[in-house]
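Materials and Methods. Structural model of GntR family transcriptional regulator. The 541-residue sequence of GntR family transcriptional regulator from Zobellella endophytica was retrieved and submitted for structure prediction as follows.
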Amino acid sequence: MKLTNLSKPRQLSTEVAGQLEREIRDGNLRVGDKLPTEQQLTQAFGVSRNVVREAIARLKSEGFVESRQGLGAFVIADGRQQGFKINPEELASLAKLRKLLELRLELEVAAAGMAARRRTRAQLARLAEAVAELTRAAQRQDSLLPGELSFSRALAEASGNEYFDNFILFLAGHLFEALGRVKPAQALFAREAATIVAERREIQEAIVLGDPDLARRATWRHILNTADRLGLKGLQGWERTRMSALGETHAPLCLPPDPSPRQVHFAVPAGACDCHMHVFGPSRRYPLTPHRSYTPAPASLAGYRKVMTTLGLSRAVVVQPSVYGTDNRMLLEVLRKGGEQFRGVVVIDPDTPEAELQAMHELGVRGVRINLLFKSGVEVSDVRRLAARVAPFGWHLQMLIDVSEFSDLYQSLGRLPVQLVIDHMGHMPTQFGVEAPGFQEMLALARDGRAWIKLSGAERISGEAYPYADVAPFARAILAAAPERTLWASDWPHTGLERDMPNDGGLLELVHDWAADPLLLRKILVDNPQRLYGFAPLAHD
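The predicted structure was written out as tokens:
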């Protein structure tokens, strides 16, 4: 191969990609051949590793090469079989540049939301360095384009999705290459340098905070402002407020619960507790929030009492559903009617008055729910404030999260001044396996006495029909790690399901399958919930 040192000031990654593409087209690199390593390419071209990475990303997007984990990049096409391609010369046209920005808008906004959940500490450090690079360039009145590219690269990597990573690098490389050719744009960006740095810092801070909604909104605003700075007004139809709320309402009607719960074949111990259920009242009296993810079927307290009687349950914990937002009236009504048999978990605003919290406590509220899967009006940025508010009452934070989306779950949540309760075994798809980092961090939280985990929601995370055999390894791993911190819940009436409604008797049978030992069953169903929710000891205890 004949690789030559590069001339400047052309876009270096474009030149690297161009030379490698010519080697492939000329047959010097054939299909199946491995490219030289990053170190070899940086030495051959006299460029940084980042430039080489961007060039390889471009070749991947154009269908010439693919990465094989732990092995490097390999040629997969000789130029006839190509994927997505952008002609750099076309981007001198503002109409074409607008279309590229529209594509970047949708991709980078999504990547920012993913990054807020998945970022590692090393990736956060790279984002911080990119902001520092932008800040230094602004102070020296240098071009911001290298720093902008560094930030896009760090954000794409933090998404934890190599397809986003490669494609965003490919798009960003083309975009910043095009902007570098437009002198008026360079002058305008120089005048707006402080604003651009502030916008990027806002995105970084949202990702550090771990708030996907905040990260998406900040990225949305930055890219729309970028379009404005280029004179491309009205990107995506002037829809500047689209990211100002939690999103458009799509609230399909759920299936009703199975009206005939079947009896279980084992002896349910006295005092057994269902640690997670919901009740929905008449919509005229208890209106649903317009920002919701589903519309529940009717589910009354009388209907749930039938489930309790059939299954042999003595106690229950009613949980505020996302469709009521912070309007807890329905839940508090259940506590008034249910008396000592019931406890509650509410959704509150961080500014809820102290007297209101005290009144809830006297009715039996013992926790606050943070719902990060369905629209609830509560965001991850509220976690620390809420923890501080409820700690004096001895309440816990109940988290509805997908633990596979959090690479630093223990670091983020393990230092809060309250106990955690994690819904539905971490709500992680079973295909990730029990060794998934987020699942293992959840186990560590429970093992170290920082969290409780509910054996519930098997029908939500399974890829199979009942009895959800693929869930069993997860349930058993939880029980092996923290039997003193494990709870059971029906999740009646199984909100959000549009098909395959489970039978509640069948769900209680599962916990017996996972933990057949009578002493362990008693811990899960009686002793553990009694400690966590403050139920009175049984008469014979």
